[in-house]
Design goal:
- The structure is a homodimer.
- Chain A has about 140 residues and is mainly alpha-helical.
- Chain A has two domains: about 60 residues, Winged helix-like DNA-binding domain superfamily/Winged helix DNA-binding domain (Arc Repressor Mutant, subunit A, Orthogonal Bundle), CATH 1.10.10; about 60 residues, Diphtheria Toxin Repressor, domain 2, CATH 1.10.60.
- Chain A has seven helices and two strands, in the order αααββαααα.
- Chain A has a two-stranded antiparallel ribbon with strand order 1-2.
- In chain A, strand 1 and strand 2 form a beta hairpin.
- The radius of gyration of chain A is 17 Å and the shape is elongated.
- At the A-B interface, helix 4, helix 5, helix 6 and helix 7 of A face helix 4, helix 5, helix 6 and helix 7 of B.
- Chain A binds a DNA duplex (30 and 30 nucleotides) through helix 2 and helix 3.
DNA sequence: TAAATTTGTTATGCAAGACTAACATTTTAA
DNA sequence: TTAAAATGTTAGTCTTGCATAACAAATTTA
């Protein structure tokens, strides 16, 4: 039942919920609204959709909590984000901001398979700093 | 005047127009419809938008041609596509199909700066086949 | 604790991008 | 050279994701 494909947009909302809850133990709609630069009304709408898909628990004026399925999904998204950002930053030498911004978008697109390969590639590169240094000084 | 930001969707249409014209000297709406898996009606709509932005020349029941600005833009998109696909395929060892499919989406997102870095990285890797082989046999 | 402020919700609307169905035009072939 | 088939267009609808404005509830503070 709690298995439904999320749009990029809903993934962003879920990721935000997860991060805020992990940071502060709770999250309010207005914080999400500020983090994602959207109106409070859009947040309400998105939270209802996430609740309907059973990724969060939520009802009118209620506290927001995240379900097990929500945690799992959020961690997958965040993991994708981190692997992509790390490739841009640590391998290609892109600035942290640009790496993060682009990772934020690619995280919704990249397949599990490519993610795994990219993750091993990151590890392989960090085990061979010489190679990366030669690339950077090229 | 012929400078307007394109949505991912319109970039796909433009890319398809460019590729088909390069391949056959001309392109018909029905071919675009098949290539992109959309209805004929959607193609009409997209072509009107591209014409309005001056990336193609087009009018009711007229032949489709591409403008200079359209060619420039299409080549940029295709270059992005190729660099990304090449990274997935040649560096990470992803299958051609999966590499192409994912590249098709990332091409609309990646910045010029990251593209350039990725492009040099591809070249650097192909100049050091040893490194890539060690990664693949890891 | 009552008034003011903040936060959340609802109703409504808009834009993009897709669809189907009906119609128009063009092309093919009998 | 017409009749049939293929292609292109238009009109109307749907979905997603966003917005604003007005209202409701909760929270803060005087």
């Amino acid at each position: 039942m709690p298995e439904a494909k999320l749009s990029s947009s809903l993934e962003d909302y879920l990721e935000c919920v997860y991060n805020r809850i992990n940071l502060n133990g709770a999250v309010k709609a207005i914080e999400i609204s500020k983090d994602l630069n959207v109106s409070r009304a859009s947040v309400t709408e998105a939270l209802n959709k996430l609740a309907q898909k059973e990724y969060i628990n939520y009802g009118r004026y209620e506290m927001i909590s995240i379900t097990e399925a929500g945690i799992k999904k959020a961690r997958e998204i965040i993991n994708k984000h981190n692997v992509i950002q790390s490739f841009f930053e640590d391998v290609l030498g892109i600035s942290s901001t640009e790496a993060a911004n682009t990772a934020c978008q690619i995280e919704h697109i990249i397949t599990e398979n490519i993610l795994e390969k990219l993750s091993s590639f990151n590890k392989f590169c960090s085990s061979e700093p010489d190679f990366i240094n030669r690339f950077k000084n090229k």
